[in-house]
Specification:
homodimer; alpha+beta; six-stranded mixed β-sheet; 11 helices; 15 strands; 28% strand
């Protein structure tokens, strides 16, 4: 049984974290670096952006995930993405890891780096290195430290995103703590910008990587804020085994429990990224049911939440179901428009807008009421099977334009 | 030699047009219907939306293009798209054609219909039929009538889009007149919302259809306003042969001339749709060169002009080349980021932002100056061949959100 508990990224046994203001973006006064640390080497899995243009930390981290397979620490910075920075950019990752390695004795190849911010500039290495050193004595297992770290990794996010869960493997109580940042350039073809999930369970590498990929596919990869896939998307999962469970290495009830825990954490973070998308005022969920296969359901659901016209209508609380239908039509997925039903629902109720491909005689007044709360779901039933999928997005607002018209300044 | 002349949709021999306010959208006082007429049956070609959800007029018109292959008239309305209207919607197209057929003796199956506006509602057939009848006595070959028709088919367009050209086939002077409407829900996977191109040249059906498809692929299909492919996209090309040229039925110099005329007209309309995209303040052109094949160049160019983040940066006159690079990276096309150059140019000059995958030391001041005029081009050189492609889009602005947050009211 997976239970959500009060906690953040350092909730599981043997993990600490710290954060600091290194002053990477001079105009900002908030903390801009965070450090995550495991007391012992952890098995690591990760998923990374499929953008052909991969930021330096993505290249650095994927080498650890696929070759080293063990990690102890993560150094995170905001302000500059260290993307499209060529060989000097990769060198910056190496220098950061080596600095922490010199200070702690942890092998440099067990130290991840993660960056988010503007594409192009090189990292100010003096600030990164002194920031890294300054965080070491601050490492802590407190709730406050986790919360501060979740805030430190935010860019245009308006709220920190963190969660912790408790679950049980072979009679041992395990924990999983996580944080992430999202906001803009969110249309992961992998996961979101930066997500860190730390557990004290003991899990075999291949099984953990496979499970992470499956969960990411159903959660982070079903979120879109603006259709732009970042160069830095990274989700890291570390498992240090300090909960003392017998190594989880095969399918069965324990794996199901672990997967459920991971799914709970990932879905929470993914939906909160969508709800806190740049400029967003509403979480907009598309739920496609009655599909002949999951892939069809996914393609339809993602097309609906990605449509600028639909997103603008959600912002305007306009029951413009034609745009939802239109987005399904151009998605590339095959379905019969004449069998399709569309309903919208929220805390204020549910209403059917389309039945068998034709508009119902719905009440605009009632529709406006249902479209007013801050979480709206469109359910599209294509009545051709029993598969389903859910995708999460947000509305398109004036603030999205404001935030992105001059992000660099 | 193709020459642009002053003229609109009725510029070629034997074509007349008319427009009227039928009152389809009661809140609007502008004209909302237009009628195009050829004196004699014309050979017709057309391209239509690839959205699985096809509006009734798309179904009606494609039957004429693919089965009948001849047309005499087009009845156009704005306000209601007659999309997702089922059997009654198709019946409305038939009734409209039959009405005009009864009044004129033209076979109903030679009468196109075209609609644009809100998806869902049925057409108010009393208004459509009386509007159609009332336009007949107004049919005219004057410049004013063409201009009025181009205005009548506008929805959220801020400017009418019309052009005429003169060209020569086998020593005979031919003309081609055209108009279109664009604005929102523009990401044609075929052509734009509604485009009408009328020529007095005599062209064989199959050759004309093939040529139209090729030209649409390079023009209308390279435009995106918001990534949403409409249910109603239609481009119709009519050729009534009244210029008296010998039937154009094979490859050669005459076909090249005809294709150049069509390309001139289609590119003019396509770029004007982009520049007049909903809420747009700037035409944004992406020109990809040095590609190993045209498809790669097209995919990259379209990805750049479709990126919300890039579009918002163009609105903000922000030389955020990282977003252009990022959009190239997630496009799905293969290229070497480390060989890529990116330049931006406008009437105010040109500046190189990226060279071999790394930022140049460009002047922000100079970049701001170049980003200030109302037409901006990004040129991306991937240095892997000699193929190229151009795509046209626009910036993402507050007004796009305003227009689309409550379009139906």
């Amino acid at each position: 049984m997976v239970k959500t508990i009060d906690g953040g990224v350092n909730a599981a046994k043997g993990y600490t974290c710290a954060s600091i203001r290194a002053g990477i973006k001079e105009s900002s006064t908030k903390e801009d670096m965070a450090l995550l640390m495991s007391e012992v080497p952890a098995t690591v899995a990760g998923t990374f952006t499929r953008n052909l243009v991969k930021a330096a930390p993505v290249q650095w981290d994927s080498d650890i995930v696929y070759r080293v397979k063990q990690g102890r620490a993560v150094v995170i910075n905001t302000g500059i993405a260290n993307a499209v920075t060529g060989a000097p950019g990769l060198e910056s990752c190496k220098k950061t890891a080596e600095k922490l390695s010199n200070l702690t004795g942890i092998p440099a190849e067990q130290i991840f780096t993660a960056s988010t911010g503007v594409i192009g500039p090189q990292l100010p290495m003096d600030k990164i290195l002194s920031g890294t050193e300054a965080m070491l004595p601050k490492l802590s297992d407190t709730r406050e430290a986790a919360h501060a770290a979740a805030i430190a990794i935010m860019t245009t996010d308006t709220k920190p995103k963190e969660i912790a869960v408790e679950f049980s493997l072979g009679g041992k109580t395990c924990r999983m703590g996580a944080m992430c940042k999202g906001s803009g350039m969110i249309h992961p073809n992998m996961g979101t910008m930066l997500g860190f999930i730390l557990t004290d369970a003991a899990v075999e590498y291949e099984l953990m990587l496979k499970t992470l990929r499956e969960v990411v596919e159903e959660t982070f990869n079903m979120v879109s804020v603006d259709g732009d896939t970042s160069t830095n998307d990274t989700v890291l999962l570390m498992a240090n085994g300090l909960a003392g469970n017998e190594l989880l290495a095969e399918e069965g009830a324990d794996l199901n429990e672990f997967k459920e825990a991971l799914h709970t954490v990932a879905e929470f973070l993914a939906t909160h990224i969508a709800a806190d998308g740049e400029g967003a005022t509403r979480l907009f969920t598309a739920h496609v049911v009655g599909a002949p296969d999951v892939e069809t359901a996914k393609v339809l659901a993602k097309s609906v939440i990605t449509s600028n016209l639909t997103k603008a209508a959600i912002f305007g609380r306009d029951a413009n179901w034609g745009r939802i239908f239109c987005a399904m039509g151009y998605s590339g997925a095959n379905f019969d428009p004449n069998k399709t039903d569309i309903r919208i629902s929220s805390a204020a109720g549910e209403i059917k807008l389309v039945e068998n491909g034709l508009a119902t005689d719905f009440s605009e007044e009632k529709a406006l009421e249902i479209l007013s709360p801050d979480a709206i779901t469109a359910t599209c039933d294509i009545k051709s099977g029993s598969c389903e999928a859910t995708a999460w997005g947000c509305d398109l607002t004036y603030d999205y334009v404001t935030i992105n018209a001059d992000y660099r300044s």
